[in-house]
Amino acid sequence: VSYQREVLVQPGRIEEPDRLRGPLAAALPRALFRRLGRIVAGDQVEIERRGSKPVVAGLLPRRSEFRRTGAGGRSQLLFSNLDLLVLCATPSLPPFRPGLVDRLLLAARLQEIEPLLVLNKTDLVEPEAAAALLEPYRRLGTWCLATSAERGDGLEELASALKGRCAALAGHSGVGKSSLINRLVPDAALPVGQLIDSTGKGQHTTTRVRLLPLPESGFLMDSPGLRMFGLPALEPRQVARLFPGFEAMPPCRFSNCLHLREDGCSVLEALGQGKIGPERYLSYQRILREMDPALAPEVAPEAAEPEHEDLIEPDPSEPEDEDPAAPDPT
Ligand SMILES: Nc1nc2c(ncn2[C@@H]2O[C@H](COP(=O)(O)OP(=O)(O)OP(=O)(O)O)[C@@H](O)[C@H]2O)c(=O)[nH]1
Ligand SMILES: [Mg+2]
Ligand SMILES: [Zn+2]
């Protein structure tokens, strides 16, 4: 048998992770890799012993898949079997970027994974400032928590949100994903990076997805800071329907309403009444405009979020999807 590569396998089930045994390096037979493609964090596999060597014998069906569109328009599976996607952001150092938050929220909804927005490093700002950042999301029904890995705020709530579930932390580099996990999982000892000077950018300290058993039950995954997050293939109409919070509005007069200038649009009405925050609506327009520049008009420059490098550049530090048909590297 020839082996494509090794995968790290954490023994145990989600209800009862085996915390005493660390991850096991199991070989992935090349034929299986050809058939299944990449095995990602969250996948459940069957292991067999062949001689002294643990070998992956099969992949159990996936309950869910979380994908993004990577460089070159290819769909890339990031995590499987997620129950919860924890979007991590910060009020400062690095600055809050609604662009990534909105894309992740939308991608989670589209792929039927529950999102939780965590605003970490709240020790760096006044409590009112943190609350003001989360308020437009809360108003539209997004589940939000404010935390400080530094001071310990909100960690009990976060731990109870994670208990018994398979969750992944995602967000820009430097927002404190690994720091949060170190507080939640006593022996995790994940490396934590310094921020780059005054810009507060992270240094992409975490380079691979890691899955850890939680103290009581459930699994938690750390992931490398996202530089870009391309939405999976979408129609503007789907965005109009799925944009976080818009589903809570009464139906618009036209079922294919894009909430731009149509008559009888309940989203525009809610915007006028202040039920939808203007920044949420601008964010929606921005996503539509990226899909089709002709659709949504340019917004005033001061209201627009500056184009972020992360939305353009692929991340060289992230594992690329291997082509299952590629020659065996070993
Ligand atoms: N003030 C403050 N600093 C924090 C907090 N959480 C993390 N940090 C700091 O932020 C920096 C980055 O933390 P990491 O945990 O490495 O961030 P990360 O999101 O894992 O970053 P990548 O692995 O690069 O994606 C470190 O210097 C941490 O000490 C917090 O709640 N408050
Ligand atoms: Mg990290
Ligand atoms: Zn509408």
Task: Describe the structure using short key phrases.
alpha/beta; binds guanosine-5'-triphosphate; six-stranded mixed beta sheet; binds zinc ion; 23% helix; 330 residues; binds magnesium ion; two-stranded antiparallel sheet; single chain; disordered C terminus
Task: Give the arrangement of secondary structure elements.
Elements: E1 3-9, E2 12-13, E3 16-17, E4 24-29, H1 30-36, E5 45-50, E6 53-59, E7 65-69, E8 75-80, E9 84-89, H2 98-110, E10 114-119, H3 127-139, E11 144-146, H4 155-162, E12 166-171, H5 177-184, E13 210-213, E14 219-222, H6 236-242, H7 266-272, H8 278-291
Helix pairs in contact: 2-8
This protein binds guanosine-5'-triphosphate, magnesium ion and zinc ion.
Structure description:
The chain is α/β, with parallel strands linked by helices. Helix content is 23%, strand content 21%. The protein has helices at 30-36, 98-110, 127-139, 155-162, 177-184, 236-242, 266-272, 278-291; strands at 3-9, 12-13, 16-17, 24-29, 45-50, 53-59, 65-69, 75-80, 84-89, 114-119, 144-146, 166-171, 210-213, 219-222. A 6-stranded mixed β-sheet has the order 11-10-9-12-14-13, sandwiched between helices. The longest helix has 14 residues, at 278-291. The structure holds guanosine-5'-triphosphate, magnesium ion (MG) and zinc ion (ZN). Residues 120-121, 123-124, 148-150, 173-179, 192-195, 202-206, 224-225 line the site of guanosine-5'-triphosphate. Residues 177-178, 205-206, 222 line the site of magnesium ion.
